[in-house]
Amino acid sequence: MRRRHMRKSIIGVLCMAVLLAANACAVRSSAPVTEQTGEPRIISTSAPLCTILDKLDLDLVGIPDTAFAIPERYKNVKIVGAPMTPDFEIVKALNPTDVLSPNALQQDLQPHYQRIGVPSTFVNLLSLDGMFRSIDGLGKKYDRQKQADALISEYRTFMDAYASSVQGKDKPSVLILFGLPGMYMIATEHSYVGSLVKLAGGVNVFDDPEALLSVNTEELIKRDPDIILRTSHALPEAVMAAFEQEFRDNDIWRHFRAVQEERVFDLSNQIFGMSANLNYQEGLNQLREILYEQD
Questions:
Q1: Cystine design at 187: which of 36, 178, 215, 285 (Cβ 3.0–4.6 Å)?
Q2: Which residues does residue 227 pair with via DSSP β-bridges, in sequence order?
Q3: Closest by alpha carbon to 100, among 137, 149, 72, 128?
Q4: CATH number 3.40.50.1980 is the correct assignment for the domain at 22-162
Q5: How far apart are CA 292 and CA 295, in angstroms?
Q6: pLDDT tens per residue across span 182-220
Q7: Which of 184, 205, 236 is nearest to 8 (CA)?
Q8: Given the DSSP bridges, would you call strands 183-187 and 173-180 parallel, antiparallel or unpaired?
Q9: What percent of the chain has pLDDT over 90?
């Protein structure tokens, strides 16, 4: 889990900048509510959403093409393309009653859904609170309130105990590097992984309203974090190999106290990715071990 080295990044205009202009509501439909007859025909374009819908005991007619784990119940469901660029012809052909996507992609996807005339709902996966508000909304919308309430109750019980377990501990300063092939950025507390670090008691060395920031290594070293965390959005093996090369070849990293003290940690993007997900308990427990290992 622990690594000490990364490849030099090429910083440019990030193609995923749209992810930072997210809508703040929990569940927002792009179509007027109309009475539906028969079983719903739901498409999910997000792997974390598929996991949520499985827990809500909802069937799907379409799922994303993704490297992330998809629940077994959906193994024979039609694939509709990548989460950021679904095949809209396939989406339309499935005649969905609702297409569910993360609200971080609303600006990109909503015009296409409107163009092909399919109803869509954009779900808040920017934080745990947003995700569970969304779960409550989906439970109401699809008559799955019992299942939604069970998930919400589990979340509240876990978080109460977790908050008590980190209360009163010294708060370490943390730098979070969010990697993509060919580049990496700084994740603030307004990113999903940053929000988990905050819940665990870590203090992000960058206080900025944006979720992701461009990297300036000279500025990074001024912050001198106690801990450096590294994760990725996709292609984790390639990104982590790039991190290894960067930390090995770029001399500036040798001046970081976290590197000298071997407090650089790589996180799985299956848990610490772009979107909130139901692996939050495992993620927060891992962070507690990392942040307070010297206690």
A1: 178
A2: 174
A3: 137
A4: yes
A5: 5
A6: 889 999 999 999 999 999 999 999 999 999 999 888 888
A7: 184
A8: antiparallel
A9: 80
3-state secondary structure 263-286: CEEECCCCCCCCCCCCCHHHHHHH
Task: Name which of 16, 292, 39 is nearest 168 in CA terms.
Answer: 292
Q: Give the distance between the most distant pair of CA atoms in the chain.
A: 64
- Find the helix packing angle between 128-141 and 192-199, rounded to 10°: 110
Task: Map out the domains of the chain as residue ranges.
Answer: 22-162, 169-291
Q: Which two tokens stand for residue 90?
A: 């396939």
Q: How many CA atoms lie within 13 A of 214 on its CB side?
A: 8
Where is average pLDDT lowest: 12-16, 37-41, 243-247? 12-16
Position 218 scores a pLDDT of: 82
Q: Do domains 22-162 and 169-291 have the same CATH topology?
A: yes
**Structure confidence at residue 28 (pLDDT):** 54
